[in-house]
Task: inverse folding
């Protein structure tokens, strides 16, 4: 099993090019199942979750090939409607094929998904919402057996709580439904807006009619077209935090700063110097980091996917801080490993109480999920000596060539087999 070896301390300096967004690519890849024509996708990140989703599409009958970094998807002969556990067990986003399969064929059998063990993340919101479009379903032996006897029929749906995955699944499914669908209490993450932009480009009819409301007029077919995936704002946020925690000086390229306003504001408040230019952010980390209290929230709040990274940063602050996790109930699994490195973090309910002025000590560490993995890398960058991070397959699910990107800006890091 591969590991990362980090020798610290490191002060990062230079430029980092941000890859395409994993969280935008996954629903867009699922949405290509709606089409019987060729779809060309650009700027896909080279990460494990994307590889898994591509393999899932292939198992469903999609013909896929790369040509000059462009993914070409041809679903002309796509007929399979069964998404197996073998491919779904490591990736939560696999459930997103349920909507397009039902829209296209009227029935599907999809394994309940896996992914990071950061909370229950039930799919009941997906299923109850699809039922309002005319879907009948049952869960048997770990699979969702779903059928739309009369096809999908548009209606008004209000999500019981804000859910990124359910919003994506229903947008995709409703694109081929008969009539008009109104979705209310939708998630607003930029990755969802990227999905809408993609679907409109290939011939769908989707409009935002209020802050959290979408109107979808169903169409009969999807056009052939090409689309470039947005940048990965979580990767960008991670490297911004890496600069802040190492008192580094980084230039983050291929981004849109509007999607990082909350995180930029937080980093400024803790002392980082930040300059925003077109498609670039310049950040210089402060020698003294100020404490701050934070809470995760749906967009445009602080992303839960950046909570672990922010926690490492606040361990280095001059006073105590608090982070309140409002999205997932089990997203503090990195705390025990950070405490092993010398942090003083205690958990009370959904709050992490973080003592500042931590001097992290090098250690051998165990990653527990995707974002926890990268938080351990950030902590290791500040330590004196050699740290080993095990189970980095979690890291490979969402970060493209992380050790190569960090090495280019001065980190002493390498992959061990």
Result:
């Amino acid at each position: 099993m591969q590991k990362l070896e980090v020798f610290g301390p490191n002060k990062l300096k230079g430029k980092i090019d941000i890859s395409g967004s994993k969280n935008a690519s996954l629903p867009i890849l699922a949405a290509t199942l709606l089409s019987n024509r060729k779809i060309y996708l650009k700027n896909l990140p080279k990460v494990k979750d994307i590889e898994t989703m591509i393999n899932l599409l292939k198992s469903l009958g999609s013909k896929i090939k790369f040509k000059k970094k462009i993914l070409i998807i041809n679903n002309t002969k796509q007929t399979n409607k069964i998404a197996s556990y073998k491919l779904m067990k490591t990736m939560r986003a696999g459930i997103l094929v349920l909507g397009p399969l039902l829209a296209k064929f009227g029935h599907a059998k999809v394994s309940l998904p896996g992914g990071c063990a950061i909370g229950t993340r039930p799919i009941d919101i997906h299923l109850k919402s699809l039922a309002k479009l005319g879907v009948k379903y049952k869960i048997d032996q770990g699979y969702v057996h779903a059928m739309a006897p009369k096809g999908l029929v548009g209606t008004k749906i209000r999500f019981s709580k804000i859910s990124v995955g359910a919003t994506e699944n229903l947008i995709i499914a409703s694109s081929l439904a008969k009539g008009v669908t109104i979705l209310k209490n939708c998630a607003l993450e930029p990755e969802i807006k990227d999905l809408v932009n993609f679907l409109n480009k290939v011939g769908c009819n989707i409009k935002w009619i209020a802050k959290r409301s979408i109107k979808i007029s169903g169409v009969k077919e999807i056009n052939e077209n090409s689309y470039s995936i947005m940048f990965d704002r979580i990767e960008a946020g991670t490297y911004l935090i890496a600069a802040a925690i190492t008192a580094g000086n980084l230039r983050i390229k291929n981004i849109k700063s509007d999607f990082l306003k909350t995180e930029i504001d937080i980093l400024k408040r803790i002392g980082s110097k930040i300059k925003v230019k077109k498609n670039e952010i310049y950040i210089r980390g402060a020698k003294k980091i100020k404490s701050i209290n934070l809470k995760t929230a749906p967009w445009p709040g602080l992303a839960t996917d950046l909570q672990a990274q922010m926690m490492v940063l606040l361990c280095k602050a001059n006073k105590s801080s608090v982070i309140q996790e409002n999205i997932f109930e089990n997203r503090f699994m990195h705390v025990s490993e950070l405490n092993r490195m010398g942090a003083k973090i205690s958990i009370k309910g959904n709050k992490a109480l973080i003592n500042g002025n931590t001097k992290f000590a090098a250690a051998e560490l165990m990653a527990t999920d995707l974002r926890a993995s990268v938080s351990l890398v950030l902590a290791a960058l500040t330590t004196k000596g050699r740290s080993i991070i095990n189970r980095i397959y979690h890291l490979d699910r969402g970060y493209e060539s992380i050790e190569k990107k960090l090495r280019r800006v001065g980190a002493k890091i390498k992959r061990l087999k």
The mean pLDDT is 94. Residues 233-245 form the longest helix (13 residues).
